[in-house]
Write a structure and sequence with these properties.
Largest sheet of chain A: 4 strands, mixed
CATH topology of chain A: Glutaredoxin
Strand content of chain A: 25-35%
Distance between the termini of chain B: 59 Å
Number of strands of chain A: 4
Number of helices of chain A: 3
Order of helices and strands of chain A: EHEHEEH
Number of helices of chain B: 17
Oligomer: heterodimer
Helix content of chain B: over 70%
Shape of chain A: globular
Distance between the termini of chain A: 11 Å
Order of helices and strands of chain B: HHHHHHHHHHEHHHHHHH
Largest interface: A-B, 31 and 39 residues
Helix content of chain A: 40-55%
Strand order of the largest sheet of chain A: 2-1-3-4
Radius of gyration of chain A: 12 Å
Chain lengths: 92, 344
């Protein structure tokens, strides 16, 4: 289980309150799972960049993608929801 | 599988939502005015510090069912609207793209923090500058929180005409800008031609109670974000109502002059979300004609913070052009409405 899970948080720049909240929530869930030996990378990406739009199309901010799949948009996950998503990605 | 606890939580939340809805319906049935009832005469004898408090209390007493319902509905709509379906179709630059940008997108865009990224998203993803402009102009005018408050606090005919007027303005501005060289330049610069491989959107399905909660949490966020400014705005409006002589402004609020002045001031004067409605209501009580009020309300899309935010994405020329078109149409619709209703 040394596979790296990449979680991307998309939000506008300057960051809006809810995007920061998503980032914090995912970081927290990731920290819990890292303690169990999972390898997780959490990255913030600007939602208004060509790179993001080219890859995912139009997104509603804030959005969260795990391993290149947008799992949530326009919503803030709870820590439990974020943990479940990350764990599910680890099992793939 | 939904557990018993999940069902219970969902029920509690549904009861709360039903209560908010019932409060609104009840106020309609009992013909309880949701608009504030205080007039200048009521406020004038009061000490300075008491004026805003009395005015706010009056507002709170009358408008709470409307505000509560508006905030709850805004949160729930945002949560339950099929966002993946919408965003997939927003890359269409033909008729469908325009229609979607005009009709569905504004419904859930109650806060500017989601508005500008969506504007940029529509622009980048292939739908181009036309639908992006349509979205930008419709969003502040046609999200139903604005509509509900305009309808309840001012009048439903004004709310519906406002919606129609915003729709026509937005479509015209979108189509015109998409045809100008500047619009084309922006489009050529920004549109992402090929979809890079690898990205996918597959939103997770969450249990109903968690989605309800997420929606209500967003309502709470909107309350925290919008209500403080609304209250500050009302404090200003309360002094305005109390101390500007009721007859002094009347000549500037009616007729052709009234429409033009309202259009010119409505935009650049920055009024936080919903405050333009409260101030509009106060102006109406002071004798503003309904046509001028319509122009006043239509000013929102070209207010300064909006233009600053979009000018970070597109050229100033494009921003200027849509502001001019929006201003022009705000005058035209104000005059048309005045003619149709007989300058009342």
């Amino acid at each position: 289980m040394a596979k790296t899970i990449t979680a991307e948080v998309f939000g506008p720049d300057p960051p809006c309150h809810r995007c920061q909240l998503v980032h914090k929530t995912v970081e927290q869930a990731a920290a819990e799972l890292k303690a169990q030996g999972l390898d997780i990378r959490v990255i913030r990406k600007p939602i208004m960049s060509r790179e993001v739009v080219a890859r995912y199309g139009v997104l509603v901010s804030p959005a969260l993608a795990i391993n290149g799949v947008v799992k949530m948009m326009g919503a803030v996950p709870t820590v439990k929801q974020a943990r479940d998503l990350l764990q599910a990605a680890a099992k793939d | 599988m939904e557990t018993r606890g999940q069902k219970l939580r969902a029920t509690v939340m549904l009861v709360f939502i039903a209560f908010a809805f019932a409060a609104l319906i009840h106020s309609r049935i009992s013909a309880y005015s949701l608009a504030p009832t205080l007039k200048q005469i009521d406020l004038q004898g009061l000490p300075l510090w008491l004026v805003p408090l009395v005015y706010l209390a009056d507002y709170a007493l009358h408008a709470w069912p409307c505000l509560l319902f508006a905030f709850i509905l805004a949160g729930l709509m945002y949560e339950f609207i099929p966002k993946d379906w919408m965003t997939r179709h927003m890359r269409d630059s033909r008729f469908k793209g325009y229609l979607l940008a005009a009709v569905i997108a504004p419904v859930f865009t109650v806060c500017s923090c989601t508005m500008v990224p969506l504007f940029a998203g529509i622009l980048f993803a292939g739908a181009g500058i036309g639908p992006a402009i349509v979205f930008l102009l419709m969003a502040p005018a046609a999200n139903f929180m604005t509509l509900l408050l305009t309808g309840e606090l001012i009048a439903w005919d004004i709310a519906l005409v406002r919606l129609l007027a915003a729709f026509v303005t937005a479509i015209v501005a979108g189509v015109v800008i998409a045809r100008t060289p500047w619009g084309r330049a922006v489009q050529a610069e920004f549109t992402v031609e090929s979809q890079a491989p690898g990205g996918r959107v597959a939103l997770v399905k969450l249990p109903f109670n968690e989605r309800l909660w997420s929606g209500l949490r967003f309502s709470g966020y909107l309350v925290r974000r919008i209500l403080p400014y609304f209250v500050i705005g009302l404090v200003a409006v309360s002094y305005f109502v109390a101390f500007v002589p009721e007859t002094a402004l009347a000549p500037y609020l009616t007729g052709v002059q009234g429409v033009i002045i309202a259009s010119l001031i409505g935009g650049p004067l920055y009024t936080p979300t919903l405050v333009e409605i409260a101030l509009g209501r106060a102006l109406l009580d002071m004798g503003m004609s309904r046509g001028a009020l319509l122009s006043w309300l239509m000013g929102q899309p070209y207010d300064i913070p909006n233009m600053v935010a979009t000018s970070r994405v597109v050229h100033l020329k494009v921003v200027g052009l849509y502001a001019v078109i929006a201003l022009l149409f705000s005058v035209i619709f104000g005059l048309l409405y005045s003619i149709v209703t007989g300058w009342v």
